[in-house]
Amino acid sequence: MPYDPRLFERVLDVLARKDGWTEKAMFGGRVCVRNGHPFIGTLDDGVIALCDEPTRQKHLTLKHCSAFVHGGRELPGWVKVSLEALKTAKQLSRWVEASYALAGALPPPRPARKAASKPATRRKPKARRK
């Protein structure tokens, strides 16, 4: 899924006066990350936005929103918004602002745990045949 660079520039324009976020490649597009959480991103045919579950369920009833599916599975907390719902700066700004606020309210993600290595066990030598 390539992303639309012009749409991503519009997202960056909304975030221009905000701090505490970065951008990175993710989900086959570009996303913005705040407090360790990706919160808004662009794909070829719209944006993906982070939202809490009650809000997500409400958004999924809207005409231009659908569940975000990546790698064959639906990602909880994410909706995909089609370009038809993002024609104006005000429309896009609502999605970016809401996702930005949610990511800022979330606690930082816990660092990934390293798998505990098992201590090496010594094999008993096999008895030799004579």
Description:
By secondary structure, the protein is α+β, with helices and mostly antiparallel strands. The chain is 27% helix and 31% strand. It has one domain: Aspartate Aminotransferase, domain 1. The protein has helices spanning 5-15, 53-59, 89-105; strands spanning 21-26, 29-34, 37-43, 46-50, 65-70, 73-82. The chain has a six-stranded antiparallel beta sheet with strand order 1-2-3-4-6-5. A hairpin with a 2-residue loop joins strand 5 and strand 6 (73-82).
What is the number of helical segments per DSSP (H or I, 4+ residues)? 3
Q: In what order do the strands lie side by side in the largest sheet?
A: 1-2-3-4-6-5
Return the structural class. Answer: alpha+beta
Strand content: 25-35%
Helical amount? 25-40%
Specify the biggest β-sheet: 6 strands, antiparallel
The rough form would be described as elongated
Write a short abstract of this structure.
This protein is α+β, with helices and mostly antiparallel strands and 130 residues long.
Q: How is this fold's topology laid out?
A:
Elements: H1 5-15, E1 21-26, E2 29-34, E3 37-43, E4 46-50, H2 53-59, E5 65-70, E6 73-82, H3 89-105
Antiparallel strand pairs: 1-2, 2-3, 3-4, 4-6, 5-6
Name a few traits of the molecule.
130 residues; alpha+beta; Aspartate Aminotransferase, domain 1; 6-stranded antiparallel beta sheet
